[in-house]
Input
Amino acid sequence: MRRLRGNATLRAMVRETQVDAGDLIAPLFVQNGSNIHEPISSLPGQFRFSPDTALAEAKVLLELGVPAVLLFGIPDSKDATGTSAYDPDGPVPQTIRLLKSTFPELCVIADVCACEYTDHGHCGILHGETVDNDATLEVLSNASLCYAQAGADIIAPSDMMDGRVAAIRNALDNEKYFSTVIMSYAAKYAGAFYGPFRDAAGSAPSFGDRRSYQMDIANGREAMREMELDIEEGADILMVKPALFCLDILQQAKQRFELPLCAYHVSSEYSMIKAAAAQGWIDEKGLVDDALTSIKRAGADLIITYYAKEWAQWKKESHR
Output
């Protein structure tokens, strides 16, 4: 076996899995205003942007070969029903319009969820202290339509409400947005994976947790059922989240389904690597390369990662 490992050229020639900048999607946090480039302490190297600075960031990403961004909104105000999620003057629609008018080739993905827009931080409308699944579908549909009207290429519902893919597809098709893609967070696990993200987006729930509507990390067969349902409802791309903790789920999905698969290399996975690197305990570049390669080897066609720009920069420098 070692004959094909003897030198770097041979190893590259027989390598089974290749990660390219074109496989990556960069998450961006956007808020209203101008000239905002605010560091996020729990996500070192990540920032909150205004539409104009998000545009500058997108330009750098495109130059590095990263073709897509995933937008998360930080609204000016919140209420119990998340109405600012579908405000056409909100940060996400504003950023979409600016990005698509300047860089039409950029793939713009809009995350759809109520958690950033509700004053209680849950992913849907509450009935008492319980999320009302069916009442939430209208909010998600309204937000999806708002983002499609702004020019989003892909709508990415991350709420995990039952039936939301069908509701969003119907809402888009009724307004003749037949070409707008739905990338469903089909298998999104609840747990301690998202702390830095919630800090960045201001989306931590004010009470309880999300285990009643997001998946139990102990369950694998359930993930396959979730994906089957989303396919039936009209999803175009399936997502697994978190990526490194769910490589087995990715592999099962790859073997079972023919739709493109996306994996979200989430905030805790990113911040753990950053923290260890800051202590000098690890080879950051090597570990990130291994992590992204493992995610793709397990079955991901696309990878959402906070390392998108940095990894692409490292690769560009190594090829000079």
Remarks:
- The first helix runs from residue 8 to 13.
